[in-house]
């Protein structure tokens, strides 16, 4: 499947962007491994546990009325396990060292989760024969406006006030 190679490529890029990342797994919400970059762990077991934790996290968010599930962070004595939603049908789990920068972990995990969601959705759409319009990923630059050179800022001219001062009739 082409989506597996693309997701694996994203997982490998993620390892280069996050120092002290021990590994990552992208899985379906049912616990089936889509791709993994995890050298010393039981990948299928981690994917299954991620699916179970995802179910509990969804119930917690629903019960607390906090919207849709986005992410889950578990800290152990030797590091972190972070799980990010990757669309409605996939999930990304990252394993990081205890000295990892958690802010960077969240930033890159959210970005990669969004990319994986796009890849999985595109594969599902192509399997179903659906065509979607192109949509920019979070790191893609916005398209340039016609007639404006790339890298220039738009010019904003303030609107004129509609309330003109009128001289009083007696003056």
Walk me through the structure.
- With 171 residues, this protein is of the alpha+beta class.
- The chain has three helices and five strands.
- It has helices spanning 2-17, 43-63, 102-128, and strands at 21-28, 33-37, 71-76, 79-85, 90-97.
- It has a five-stranded antiparallel beta sheet with strand order 2-1-5-4-3.
- The protein is globular.
- It starts with a helix and ends in a 43-residue tail after the last helix.
Into which percentage range does the β-strand content fall? 15-25%
Q: SSE order in H/E notation?
A: HEEHEEEH
Number of helices, where a helix is a run of at least 4 consecutive DSSP H or I residues: 3
**In one word, what is the shape?**
globular
| Rg on CA atoms, Å | 23 Å
Helicity level: 25-40%
What class would the helix/strand composition place it in?
alpha+beta
Major sheet description:
5 strands, antiparallel
Strands of the widest sheet, in order across it, are: 2-1-5-4-3
Give the tally of β-strands.
5
Instruction: Tell me the distance between the termini.
Output: 83 Å
> pLDDT average, as an integer?
82
Show the helix and strand layout.
Blueprint: H1 2-17, E1 21-28, E2 33-37, H2 43-63, E3 71-76, E4 79-85, E5 90-97, H3 102-128
Antiparallel strand pairs: 1-2, 1-5, 3-4, 4-5
Helix pairs in contact: 1-3
Descriptive tags:
globular; 5-stranded antiparallel sheet; 171 residues; alpha+beta
